[in-house]
Amino acid sequence: MNLAAQRAELIAQSVGEVRKILETGGVSRASLDMVKPLLEDLARRKELWMTAEFPAPELPELTAFYLLHQDSMTGCSLYLNIMRPGEQTPVHNHTTWACIASVEGIETNYLYRRMDSGDEAGKARLELSGVVEVGPGNGIGILPDDIHAVGNIGTDVVRHLHLYGQDVKELTHRLMFDLERHTYQTMPLIQVDERHELENRT
User: Fold this and answer.
1) Cis peptide bond prior to 144, omega within 30° of 0
2) Where does 26-161 have alpha helices with state H?
3) Side-chain half-sphere of 33: how many Cα atoms within 13 Å?
4) CA proximity to 35, closest of 135, 140, 133, 159
5) Residues with Cβ < 8 Å from 51, sequence gap 6 or more?
6) pTM above 0.70?
7) pLDDT tens column, 108-164
């Protein structure tokens, strides 16, 4: 079995286990705590994710986001996110659940809580509630209403698996927040490299 076939088989097995967890427990902190080890185990198979098929972005681009797999039964979508040093996302929500696990390197997650009532459109006041360094063996689960930002503040390229509850192309209502102006607006869609979509769709 070649590497691509091994990768597809292991992904399908892992996503199948995720499906069972969500069917039993729904989407909750507890269920995502069960999903994280599955994704961490998958991320440990570095030989699957550090190949010429998944090159780091060419400067001046700082991020490459590869679609690996989509599950037609649940909508779960698995991506490989590669970030060069200096990349930083806007502060944003997800509107779907997500889990992140490290293949190599540390992706720093900044977690925020909303301090206002949410009654005034376009306005939001956030407060930093924690920082989580997502490195090998230390994943993170994100619920639909959670707010965070991620970045690569180190000196090396990092690779992480991101498992979302939906295809990111469907996340048209995500918000990104301006911490200084206390405002928010709709977040642009993530640009995804879909070269593996058809071969890994189930």
Assistant:
1) no
2) 29-43
3) 3
4) 140
5) 3
6) yes
7) 999 999 999 989 999 999 999 999 999 999 999 999 999 999 999 999 999 999 999
